[in-house]
Amino acid sequence: MVKDMDILVIGCGLCGSVVARHMAEQGKKVVMWERRDHIGGNMYDYVDEHGFLVEKYGPHTFHTKDKRLYDYMRRYEDWQPYKLTCGAVWDGKYTPTPFNFTTIDTFYPPAEAQKLKDKLSAAFTGRPTATVVEVLEHPDEDIRGYAQFLFQNDYAPYTAKQWGVSPAEIDSSVLKRVPLRFSYGEGYFDDPYEAMPAHSYTHFFENLLDHPNMKVALGVEALERLKAKKDRLYLDGAATDIPVVYTGALDELFGCVYGRLPYRGLRFEWKYKEKESLQPAPIVAYPQEAGYTRITEYKKLPVQDKPGTSYAVEYPLPYEEGKAAEPYYPVLTAKSQEQYTKYRTLADRIPNLIPCGRLADFKYYNMDQALARALDVAEKMK
């Protein structure tokens, strides 16, 4: 298999699979190596023993402002509109997230709540949302106090658990992912295209990888066969000039010569209850609870009309190479990004090495961002 190929792709997640499909359609013979026992990367889903479609590595909803990306996803699966709603619980009270005027009504006395809503509407006229970073810096004491209240009760404890560092260390882009709404509007995203697969994400990948020029090998530990030494790639001990699209952690490819890049892993506790609903929204954060960060109720993601409910309790933990945990999220700090730049410099010296994806790029991609990145890489490989 190794000899009969024009391109080697490491990883069968979204980025690797999209690049592989594109190159296969250009007439290239593509071989894919995946260390897991399934395709689809972290988007992999399956039907559990209770009949619910669940996602093994945590929840995903495809959303984008770019119709081109949505149309690409539709080439390989039918999609159904799905508007994701999320929430958070602290002090025994539930509020939608992103935080909105319902949040204010829930946690403030009526007169105080109305005053704050009026101030926010006036201060951010014409703007439906703003980041918590912006609101924390607002000159008005009441507005700033609201942001501090949210930060202390949700952003700070959640960030500390999720990322294992203080909010002061984490890159501001992470804190900006969940804005504040200046209305009663709900819904986690505001993109015009938001959907879930009609069948499953796994079905999408099965179609994406179905091409005569593509061969997929599961259970392959790529770094046992692929080495980077002295500005060259070696495949099974021999130097190779074959293009290698690498979607794994870049520090591991280079033997962690500059130290380990920090990633967060996750542990899931899978549970089932014979009740019709566990929580008000499919995904709910619990910033005050010890250990776990959130619960995903898969009966609602997508809506599945079956008795009982299957759900996963999510515990973040440090990623350590060689252990069962997967590297999910890059921990973006000034130090880690400087460290990554050193690894990227090593990678850029190898002309046939193409890093691509959340781990290889050391970026916190949404699905549409990962897809856009993969298509850009594929276009440049023509």
Summarize the structure.
This protein has eleven helices and 22 strands. By secondary structure, it is α+β, with helices and mostly antiparallel strands.
Strand arrangement, largest sheet? 8-7-18-19-20-17-21
Number of strands: 22
Question: Rg from C-alpha positions?
Answer: 22 Å
Total helical segments: 11
Are there runs of 5+ residues with pLDDT below 50, and where? none
Query: What shape does the CA trace take?
Result: globular
Strand content: 15-25%
**Mean pLDDT across residues:** 93
| Biggest sheet record | 7 strands, mixed
Structural class: alpha+beta
Oligomeric state of the chains present here: single chain
Helix content: 25-40%
Distance between the termini: 22 Å
Please, could you describe this protein's structure?
30% of the residues lie in helices and 24% in strands. The two termini are 22 Å apart. Strands 8-7-18-19-20-17-21 form a seven-stranded mixed β-sheet. Strands 12-2-1-16-22 form a five-stranded parallel β-sheet, covered by helices on one side. It is an alpha+beta fold. Helix 1 runs parallel beside helix 11. The protein is built from eleven helices and 22 strands.
